[in-house]
Amino acid sequence: MLFSASDLLFLNSLKSQNPKLKVLVSLRFDRKAVANLISANSSRSIDETDSAYSRLAIRVRDFIVAHEIDGVDLDSKYLTDNEILSVNKEIVTSFTKALRYAFQERNSVNIKPKEFLISITSSKYPKELADDYNFKEIKK
């Protein structure tokens, strides 16, 4: 479900009531989205794939900045099929790195740097959390 402009204004108005409130936009990696990313990237080189992630990350960053949102939540908890698990791990890792770089890039040229949040929705099962995400690579 996409937010309307009035929804975004309402969410940001809540910040005036509670300045410590953080508003995040949630991006869900569903099976169809992952299948599309896999097929679109299967014939691409690593550089082309990284460029696609970078372009998407810049679009997400620009949306977040334009609507004064505090960050993004990556929701991939529904991708637990064994055949796509390792691909999902790679997609989430690569996209998270691209987002971090896009946020850093914006701050390096902006007079008023802003700290953006990137969160990852986890499963209620701790083992799936460890299996589904490559935390060692995400932090790089």
Offer a quick outline of the entry:
One of its GO terms (biological process) is carbohydrate metabolic process. With 140 residues, the chain is mainly alpha-helical. The chain has helices at residues 5-17, 31-41, 46-66, 82-109, 126-132, 135-138, and strands at 24-28, 71-75, 117-121.
Q: How does this model look, in words?
A:
The mean pLDDT is 74. With 140 residues, this protein is mainly alpha-helical. It is 60% helix and 11% strand. The protein has one domain. The protein is globular and about 40 Å long. The two termini are 31 Å apart.
Name its key features.
140 residues; mainly alpha
Looking across the biggest beta sheet, what order are the strands in?
Answer: 1-2-3
- Helix share of residues? 55-70%
Whole-number count of domains: 1
Main beta-sheet annotation: 3 strands, parallel
Q: What structural class do the secondary elements suggest?
A: mainly alpha
Shape: globular
Give the number of helices: 6
Task: Give average pLDDT, whole number.
Answer: 74
Strands, total number: 3
The sequence of SSEs as H and E is: HEHHEHEHH
Unreliable stretches? none
Between the first and last Cα atoms, what is the distance in angstroms?
Answer: 31 Å
The percentage of residues in β strands lies in 5-15%
The radius of gyration over CA amounts to 16 Å
